[in-house]
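Quick one: DNA-directed RNA polymerase subunit beta from Manihot esculenta, structure tokens please.
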Amino acid sequence: MKESMDDMEEDMGTSSKGEKLPNEFDMEIDFDGDDDEDDGEFMDLTSLGDLGEGFLEDFCKKAATLFFNEYGLISHQINSYNDFIHNGLQMAFDSFDDLVVEPGYDPSKKGENEWRYASVRFGKVTVDRPSFWAGSDGGEHNMFPRHARLQNMTYSARMKVNVTVEVYTQKVVSSDEFRTGKDHFVDKVVLSTDSRDIIIGRMPVMVKSDLCWMQTVEKGDCDFDHGGYFLIKGAEKVLIAQEQSCLKRLWISNTQGWTVAYKSEVKRNRLIVRLEPVGPSKDENLKEGKKGLTVYFLSTEIPLWILFFALGIKSDKEVIDLIDYNMEDASIMNIIFGSIHDADDKCEGFRKERNALDYLVKQIQGTKFPPGEDEDCISLYLFPTLHSPRQKARFLGYMVKCLLQAYSGKRKCDNRDSFRNKRFELAAELLDRELKVHIAHARRRMSKVLQKDLYGDRDVRPIEHYLDASIVTNGLSRAFSSGAWSHPFKRMERISGVVANLGRTNPLQTMVDLRKTRQQVLYTGKVGGARYPHPSHWGRVCFLSTPDGENCGLVKNLAATGLVSTNISEPLIDILFDCGMEKIVDDAHTKLNGKHIVFLNGEWVGVCEDSHLFVTELRRLRRRKRLPQQVEIKRDDQQREIRIFSDAGRILRPLLVVENLTKIKAFKGGNYTFQSLLDKGIIEFVGTEEEEDCNTAWSVKLLLAGADGKQPVQYTHCELDMSFLLGLSCGIIPFANHDHARRVLYQAQKHCQQAIGFYTTNPNIRVDTVSHQLHYPQRPLFRTVTSDCLGKSRHQRGYNGMLPKPELYNGQNAIVAVNVHLGYNQEDSLVMNRSSLERGLFRSEHSRSYKADVDNKELLDKWRKFDDTINFGKVQSKFGRVDSLDDDGFPFIGANLQSGDIVIGRCAESGADHSIKLKHTERGMVQKVVLSSNDEGKNFAVVSLRQVRSPSLGDKFSSMHGQKGVLGFLESQENFPFTRQGIVPDIVINPHAFPSRQTPGQLLEAALGKGIACGGSMRYATPFSTLSVEAITNQLHRAGFSRWGNEKVCDGRTGEMVHSLIFMGPTFYQRLIHMAEDKVKFRNTGPVHPLTRQPVADRKRFGGIKFGEMERDCLIAHGASGNLHERLFTLSDSSQMHVCQSCKNVANVIQRGVRGGHKIRGPYCRICESADDIVKVNVPYGAKLLYQELFSMGINLKFETQLC
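--- reply ---
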């Protein structure tokens, strides 16, 4: 280790040019200020070999545990929302300038000086904590998330803003033209000023954020609830992280021509330099179609050379020096000449004095929406962070250089699919965008209303009469409820896929939904490389967790240790100058001479002569807490750039710093926190670009590979564990690296989110529409590093150290035999032990809630008159049974309700029945009845029915390896095969399920679980670091079993020994929410569609089953014509019509007069004018409807009839 430390010191004391620096400067870097005392603790350094592989692996596991304890799994959601509340909300209001309301035209005014104007300005914004009004006294109470769930309210807080309204008039006053340069100016006479705090709306509050009341309570509502979501009208909503292009870097592209773009959030600051064909030149030596450089700025097109001269450049040579590119290339010279001649064609004499600037101002003012400033628009909008025109010109020259390098093949174009060019939009950015839309709407509405009171002698009322707070409140609530969010850059459009309902099937599904990301594309067809994994995804997003279908590759999940950065508000410029950065020269003739350009969040802030020393010093400061730890530092030696990022939306991940690993020993007793590891530089957060410079070891074994005498690789960083490259749902799959990727995807995206577990610890204060709970959930026998690091440190019997996180696994351990059983487990079917199910295996509880609401008369009587009020109550219903209802209209607790029973009784004062009936195949026992109300004038009632469900034929099950199947047969225990120990399997799976699906991981899990059940010490099945097959077989052999997990069994039916060996072992199985009882569909006759008179198509509406053309072909092939006639006619839409045999037209049934003054009703042919020779035919109503519709269009059909 001494040699490595010497190498490090030598590396830090050597410049990027290989020159040795003076010792004084070397000492200044190594020891700085108060770091001397900290470094004294780590003077006794040992080599990595002395630490040992086992010690380093335990340290990695503990460090990962500390990381999850410090940051959790959804900190990116909560941190982003907190940053918006503390900083972004005020910035959103500050982005609006003063609103000047001008008076409309008033013909009663005689002079110009009496017109009144108003100016409205937003000030400081404050946000209260959530509250609501309730009780007999109407007092204000603290609102907790459970109140919003039970009362269908939005968990939101009031926003108050200080609004200043100034009413004034304008007068034209003469002035001294010699002093001011103007003979007249407009003077403002203030009539009144009003400043007050008003409520501008309600902001939805994220659960467990700084505004939430759950931050102050000792015990939360649910142990599995980590927050990070919103409650909108009682529904749980989550914001999905949106992938957007990074606006803080130069973008070089050749998709639609060669361009380099300076992007910015402010539209007027954007600038594009494009290489395109320029017009014909006056010079005969230049051919038409020559390429030149054009600048697009402020919605106008400007030749590049004119913009350079407008910025104060005096000669063409200075422009060439600013571009600083090799001009020996003929193609580059042609582009330069083309740009110069294009500028000469557009503006003759642009090199003289102010001609170029005047031309630029004229072009900008000629646009459709010109800025208010004339000459100041360049200093305000062109590279606003650079204050000098010469510095702006130098930056423009560098952009041209980058474009020419890409055109000549010496620089790569930016890849839009790389994470270095992307940023994630979380709650801060999404809420900021949506809130600005509604604030602008409220300002427009306020301006129109306020303008009316500026007429005549009207009094201007307080501002709350004009500013409607419901616009912001309802707008945000509507965006969350509908999912239609404001577009990032198109003002009038909205996008979907930003808001999603939070899944609550099990806690794992909830965590996965909170860690989803989404990439918006214009269409979901072929989108290039957007769907494919990219090398920059490594360790940041899971390369397996993505849905199948149209969103495949577009919706992703964060990796286990992926962390989204937040915005760093600390100024970094002074630190950069202290580390050796130089200022940008303010002239056009000084060359960079090979110096590196320093970018901070895409803005040019300086230059650096020795880039290696500069970057090393910055990273040293970051590892010593002198620089924020989420700052990303990239040294691009090829392009001679240093890019530093401190913005929000970058994905970081923790890595071990190899050169500082020996500092671990200095922590006495192993007591340290994750923050202390960051402060000492043992672990650091690495971004996408910075990791390109890192040489990362996959495990600590590779760090110690040089102990065998081989030449070791010089690693700079090391992974905490390879399984952290996967997402949360993938990292807990045992032996995932042995399975086919498609099966791992099925488990990670489908089965783990459909598995029934114990979804919450507060079911009494929740009223979910549908919920499932497993009676006896278990932990699996195996363990993974991800589940251990997310768990808690407990010392229980059978567990040493960490106790795995229980809610990640939702299922039970079952004895699984791989065998055929009487043909009942073909095609993924399962045969289960009936006695095991009777003992409670996979028994679950299904709950369904029925909700109804009525108007609250006490609140609404004040301003609304009711014609027919609906109330809760028991009334004799014509379409359902009310035997279980009390007089208040609700069933009693424990009532057994069946299909067709009324579950909530509602009736109107007129006697109309508005009750809610149990739908087809729904039943259960009443578990709870909840009555509540909200402050919007609604009374709610919720009745929850409970139903205990044991597995039945057709229910779906799955292992953790994507081996899904339905229950095909329940076999008695005495008929099952049994081993010599008397073990009878719970599940029998077909052996044909393994070869084609390529899931040997399940066989390894069964073999490992068998060894663990027999007292084996090797328990880990972590992906990428699993036990070898030899280790698993040896553990089984030591326990007295066959090495390969096979067993000799006896047939339960005959009692004879089965000749073949049967593979048997404990496997973790999941019961999924897809049950036969919820999907069974049967009917004889029932509701039909009013137009076609054919059966409706919905199961919940007691609809029919579609019988299509292919089913019809099958019955024809079988010769079952009678069955076909019954299906498609008798039980569908049988009808009758009358046909005249004479003219073969349809005869109508009409009422007509006959002799004697009588009238009869019957079929009559209007064409033949006769009622004779009319026959009645049986036709489907669909055919009759088609005839009628064609007849209405003037098309008549004739029918051939034949008596049968």
